[in-house]
Write a structure and sequence with these properties.
The chain is an all-alpha fold. The protein contains 24 helices and no strands. Helix 8 packs antiparallel against helix 12. The longest helix has 36 residues. The N terminus is likely disordered.
């Protein structure tokens, strides 16, 4: 069987599995919810908590199978919670008004400005032009671009969309055929370093602000942009460098020398863009202002979301702005916002009714963690969270479904909620590397036809294991020394 036929077979099998999951998802969700609803209420759980568990079971299955759109599954939380008597409509809607949801809105709008003005694209070409044309230098350059764009473009999908055409152009110039090691290397570097560095920047991926929201509800402390950078960026940078290095070892490029045509193509693209435009300078000025205010929150006391929304609004000002509402409406992922809002509401309901505590206690004792040290609890939970990526498509739904339970487990284990939820949130957002269907960026690179299904776990498993160990050590030692908890 040819490589192309293998890819087609893999895609066909994936579509078949997705069709089956969607077909059984809704009836399975109803059965699971009904089974929990009609089961005997545990002695140490309230009636409202029991109903909340039934709601969680049904929505969890809908998230896993995507039997109905994720946004609709999240909206379903509100009428289901109210009509079943779990809570009132004001409480059920609180998640949609949560600060992280509006932080995501502002981040998407900022990203739209960076993309429309082509500032992000210009930065990409400038870095690639300076790094060199040898394959190992090109992959290193792609990693560097991902690091820079994590600050400028708060969307992993948008970052991939910016870089993917350039990567495919480079592969075409090199004449990479089927199963080219360089092609596999470059595309895996693109999607995996994009993901890993995202764990280190608060606005780089949606699970990060979702984590902040749940930690704030549990501990009363809202992690700022600067704090997230202080605690999250060093391990994310280390893992990004490690991911790049490991991919180079597993898929060694078949070319050792660079090609002048690659440099010529990049220079031509830069020349076509012309001089840096006024719109680019204005977009850059807004971003630098937002970044400065985020970095000085300890002095200004300005909220992260307020600063982000201020920057987003400046992009619309007459004569100064660089986008209009049509641009913004296309750039904002409304599905992501609804999934985040509904997920936060569901998590809040689980925590307030005691359902999260009951579920966490049950899991805690089932795993035999009673009496275990904080380090053991952190390691076990982080590894479980990491390999839950295999059954989740998308990280936002995963974060909203799992973080309330993780926070409740922290209380059961006597571990700081920040020490357990922060590394878990970073693992959820930054390390969906086990399968190609885990995130849209991975699906995009897989869709080029140059990768096989097995290419992802071949490098992803090792990267994820190292990440789990590193973040566990950070939570148990370094972050505590820095005074996070």
């Amino acid at each position: 069987m040819t490589a192309h036929a293998d890819v087609q077979h893999g895609e066909h099998s994936t579509r078949s599995i997705e069709s089956i999951l969607k077909a059984i998802g809704l009836p399975l969700a109803i059965v699971i919810a009904a089974a929990i609803w009609f089961a005997r209420t545990p002695d140490n759980l309230s009636i409202e908590g029991h109903k909340a568990l039934a709601l969680f079971g049904g929505v969890f299955i809908l998230y896993l199978t995507e039997a109905i759109p994720l946004a609709i599954a999240s909206l379903l939380v509100v009428p289901a919670a109210v009509l079943s008597g779990i809570t009132n409509v004001q409480t059920a809607l609180e998640g949609f008004a949560a600060s992280p949801v509006y932080l995501i809105v502002g981040a998407f709008i900022l990203a739209t400005g960076m993309v429309k003005t082509r500032l992000a694209e210009r930065i990409t070409y400038l870095i690639l032009a300076r790094i060199g044309t040898a394959p190992i230098r090109i992959t290193f350059g792609v990693m560097l671009v991902n690091i820079v764009l994590a600050f400028l473009v708060p969307s992993s999908t948008a970052r991939t969309a910016i870089l993917l055409p350039e990567c495919l152009s480079i592969l075409a110039i090199f004449g990479c055929g089927a199963r080219s090691p360089f092609a596999i290397n470059l595309l895996l570097t693109l999607t995996m370093t994009n993901a890993t560095i995202g764990a280190g920047v608060l606005t780089a991926t949606v699970p990060n602000p979702v984590t902040v929201a749940f930690v704030a509800k549990s501990s009363g402390h809202t992690i700022t942009y600067a704090e997230w950078l202080l605690f999250g960026f060093p391990p994310a940078l280390m893992m990004t460098l490690f991911a790049w290095w490991f991919i180079q070892r597993v898929f060694r490029p078949e070319f050792s020398e660079g090609l002048g045509k690659v440099d010529e193509t990049i220079q031509e693209n830069l020349a076509k863009m012309g001089r840096t435009t006024s719109a680019e300078w204005r977009a850059l000025a807004v971003f630098l202002m937002v970044t400065l205010l985020w970095a000085t929150q300890g002095v200004t006391k300005l909220d992260t979301t307020v600063v982000c929304l201020l920057g987003a609004c400046l992009l619309f000002l007459p004569r100064f702005g660089v986008i209009d509402w049509n641009d913004a409406s296309k750039g904002v992922s409304w599905q992501v916002l609804l999934v985040a809002g509904g997920g936060v509401s569901l998590g809040d309901i689980l925590m307030k009714t005691g359902a999260a505590n009951w579920l966490a206690s049950s899991i805690f004792h089932a795993l035999g963690l009673a009496g275990a040290s904080a380090l053991v609890v952190i390691v076990v939970v982080i590894f479980i969270v990491q390999f839950m990526h295999v059954i989740f498509v998308g990280t936002t739904a995963m974060a909203t479904a799992l973080l309330p339970i993780i926070l409740a487990m922290a209380g059961t284990a006597g571990v700081s909620p920040v020490a357990l939820a922060l590394p878990a949130g970073m693992i959820i957002g930054g390390y969906p590397l086990l399968m190609f269907y885990n995130t849209l960026p991975s699906i995009l690179v897989y869709g080029t036809g140059k990768l096989r299904v097995e290419d992802f776990p071949k490098v992803g498993i090792v990267i994820c294991i190292v990440a789990c160990l590193l973040y566990s050590i950070c939570a148990a030692t370094w972050w505590q020394w820095l005074g996070l908890f």
